[in-house]
Amino acid sequence: MNKILTIISFLIITSCTTIQEYENLTQETDVLLSTSVNGVIFKIQKEKDLPNAYGKKDIFGGMVDQGEKVLRFMGLNQNGNLVLRLTDVDIKSNENVFTRYNIARAPLPSFPKTPVMTQGTMIGGNQPQNQVTTITNNNTVVITDAPEAQIDRLPENAYEFEFDYKQNKLLDLGYITVSFENVTAYSIRYLLNE
Fold it and tell me: 171 lies in a domain?
């Protein structure tokens, strides 16, 4: 009995936590890394918690993709400076537990005696959805498919710049630092630090 109460308490507590946003670096830090021309120096994956029915964090730990930040090595310019390209891509999404887990928004009634499949109708420009219409005792129950998520990848923000690593080998972007250890025309060796 105590285990059941503990599990229920855990589910209630975790379902009440607020949604947080995360930025996860995909490369290791404090390890000598290398890349070549047009190679990725670092990539930061942006995510947030999947919202549940109450706008709080999903108890199953689902995440929603929010985009990425990527720094690339583009080579050296005629002055011998590094040419770097920083891109930031944002993804806007209305994804939630209903769209992710294909959950209907209303409790489902008991299975009808004679379900009938009817073609969905166009509502507000959306695609038609399959509907199951049941008529019992002059009451009509309509069950539609779960809504689909709308995920939009916004145009990327790209900023190309040069960096004189001979004067200062440490590039500080505020959220991450890159220390250039060895630079050639075709490759670099570097350290990342958050």
Answer: yes
Q: Are 82 and 51 found together in one domain?
A: yes
Q: Give Cα 10 distance to the centre of its chain.
A: 26
**pTM surpassing 0.90?**
no
Token pair of 12 as six digits: 């209630």
Instruction: Count how many Cα atoms sit within 13 Å of the Cα of residue 64 in the half-sphere of its side chain.
Output: 28
5-48 pLDDT per residue, tens: 677 666 666 556 888 888 999 999 999 999 999 999 999 999 99
Domain span holding position 158: 20-103+148-194
Report helix, strand or coil for 2: helix
- Alpha-helix runs per DSSP H in the chain: 2-15, 97-100
Q: Do both 98 and 167 map to the same domain?
A: yes
